């Protein structure tokens, strides 16, 4: 049986085991009634831990920690590079979008300008289409007899538009004195389908009009050629081919003095040596052109020079036309109302006279064009 003192000491050693890390060996034997206990202590581990072993472990731990932080740094740098790349791509997209927006704005402005220009051009073309062209006279050509040029003068006058509102009437008389007399009277009572209407007679101011003269000179030696074919040859070669082609008198040409060829516009001006050579092209609108075995039909026309002179703007009051207001809504059609008004103002006892034109706007707004009073 273990002695109580020994048992207590062993228990104490076990309590210190976690702190001292020792090894205990004991041996006991029973000899008769006495108990002998041999205790062998291995206290080597009770000495302090080797500091070098601790430093190596710490170094290994620090190296592992360093590797972890390196990996984290690499991941952070990669994330940063990705963010910078995304930012760069975003900036490129922003610049592209901004450029696209600027181009879109410029395109919209250009389209707006083109639309305005197209509208203005349409209005100009419309006015030009309404121009009144009169042949005035032939000019003396003695100074141009050597080239046998033809010169003539045309007088051009635009028609002036006038806005006619609903239930208004325009009356144009043959005699301006009739119109002026009716304007002085001011008011007229007119019988319209058994109903009386008090109409007001008013003069009206026309908008701006244009008139000018065109001096046209038709050359006796030059013709204009268009739609010259596009060939893969130098411009000098094309000029030579045009000269040789128009040199053939059997097709209406003749000896050529000069060829002015424009490759970009595919046009040319042929100058003949003989005055009056272009007379054969007056009725000829196409001329045969042979090159490399291929036949073409080139549009030709006499070369003309147009000069504008005596350009004038004018506006005023039409002395032969009156404006009628005060007509109420009518069940009759537009033509019937026009006939009733025309009959009333043609009668001399109503201070009227012969009427050239009448226009009644029964529905909505209409436009009427006027020429300059002569």
Automatic annotation (TrEMBL):
InterPro entries: Nmi/IFP35_dom. The keyword Hydrolase does not apply. Transmembrane segments: none annotated. It is found in: Cytoplasm; Nucleus; Secreted. Residues 169-258, 268-357 form the NID domain. Residues 52-79 form a coiled coil. GO terms for cellular component: cytoplasm; extracellular space; nucleus. One of its GO terms (biological process) is innate immune response. Its main location: cytoplasm. Keywords: Coiled coil, Cytoplasm, Immunity, Innate immunity, Nucleus, Secreted. Belongs to the NMI family. This is N-myc and STAT interactor. It comes from Amazona collaria (yellow-billed parrot).
């Amino acid at each position: 049986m273990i002695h109580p003192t020994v048992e207590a000491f062993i228990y104490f050693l076990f309590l210190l085991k976690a702190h001292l890390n020792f090894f205990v060996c004991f041996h006991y034997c029973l000899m008769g009634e006495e108990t002998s206990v041999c205790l062998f202590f291995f206290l080597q581990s009770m000495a302090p831990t080797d500091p070098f072993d601790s430093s190596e472990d710490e170094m290994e731990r620090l190296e592992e920690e360093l590797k972890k932080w390196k990996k984290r740094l690499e991941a952070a740098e990669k994330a940063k590079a990705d963010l910078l790349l995304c930012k760069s791509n975003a900036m490129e997209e922003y610049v592209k979008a901004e450029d696209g927006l600027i181009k879109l704005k410029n395109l919209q402005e250009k389209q707006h300008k083109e639309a305005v220009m197209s509208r203005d051009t349409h209005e100009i073309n419309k006015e030009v289409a309404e121009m009144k062209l009169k042949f005035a006279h032939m000019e003396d050509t003695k100074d141009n007899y050597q080239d046998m040029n033809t010169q003539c003068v045309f007088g051009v006058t635009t028609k002036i538009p006038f806005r006619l509102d609903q239930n208004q009437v325009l009356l144009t008389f043959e005699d301006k004195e009739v119109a002026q007399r009716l304007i002085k009277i001011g008011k007229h009572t007119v019988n319209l389908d058994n109903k009386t209407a008090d109409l007001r007679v008013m003069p009206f101011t026309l908008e701006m009009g244009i008139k000018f003269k065109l001096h046209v000179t038709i050359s006796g030696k030059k013709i204009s050629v268009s739609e010259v074919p596009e060939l893969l040859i130098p411009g000098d070669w094309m000029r030579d081919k045009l000269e040789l082609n128009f040199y053939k008198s059997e097709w209406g040409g003749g000896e050529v003095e000069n060829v002015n060829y424009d490759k970009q516009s595919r046009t040319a001006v042929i100058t003949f040596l003989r005055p009056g050579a272009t007379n054969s092209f007056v009725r000829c609108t196409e001329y045969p052109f042979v090159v490399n075995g291929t036949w073409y039909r080139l549009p030709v026309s006499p070369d003309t020079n147009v000069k504008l002179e005596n350009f004038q703007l004018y506006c005023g009051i039409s002395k032969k036309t009156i404006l009628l207001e005060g007509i109420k809504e009518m069940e009759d059609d537009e033509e019937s109302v026009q006939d009733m008004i025309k009959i009333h103002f043609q009668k001399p006892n109503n201070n009227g006279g012969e009427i050239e034109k009448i226009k009644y706007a029964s529905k909505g707004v209409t436009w009427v064009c006027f020429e300059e009073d002569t």
